[in-house]
Amino acid sequence: MSDTKLAGQFFDAAIGLLERVRDEESEAVAAAGAAIADTVAAGGRLFAFGAGHSSLAAQDVVYRAGGLALMNLLAVPGTVGVDVMPATLGSALERVDGLAGAVLDSSPARSGDLLVIISLSGRNALPVEMAQNARALGLTVIGVTSVAYATGTRSRHVSGGFLRDHCDIVLDSKIAIGDAELTTAGVEAPFAPASTVVTSALMQAMMATAAEELVARGIEPPLLRSGNVDGGHEWNGRVMREYGDRIFYRH
């Protein structure tokens, strides 16, 4: 079997998953977009959190062209990516009880804000406690996760619960347990994960819905433009001045 054939199979698998979330998660995406618009309109702040490779989809909606300027990354040191050494430390930190509470207590997040938590499995202590603590503080919590893990694996949190159990709105990425779309003869492990593709698409879909909702309410969505097009820096400067008290990646 050639590499080209496997590449085509991966694209087919990813497209199939995107079609599923488009069709099956439309109500959840609409609810998430409306909640984000509600928060923006009410003067609240927006945060996104993900650990390990789930952090990629969170970073994808923070300080980027075409994105909402108000979306801030809620970072947990050591869990944002593979830059920590050893890389396995990040996975270990996801299982530490109490870490989420400490992070939230020292963050600018407050009642009335909104937090999107991304966790493929949703089974580790960090995302579960992040959701629990955020809701206790009065934040709206949107979870982006694979519900399959909640039915096919055991929780690693003392409560026995998963991320999906502690969210106001849940978006199911439909990713199968193990996050690998392909197998082939001669390769013992399954490979070609699609969670980043699908989760990032869900994030951008909810952002698009939020922009649509804000326009319907007569509010200009606080979007950023590319700094590589004429006028982009000036546009972004205006948006950041107007919403400076709700943007934390500049401080």
Automatic annotation (TrEMBL):
Species the sequence originates in: Streptomyces salyersiae
Domain (SIS): residue spans on this chain: 36-221
Protein family: Belongs to the UPF0309 family.
PROSITE patterns: SIS
InterPro entries xrefs: RpiR-like_SIS, SIS_dom, SIS_dom_sf, SIS_GmhA/DiaA_subfam, UPF0309
Name of the protein in its database record: UPF0309 protein RM649_11905
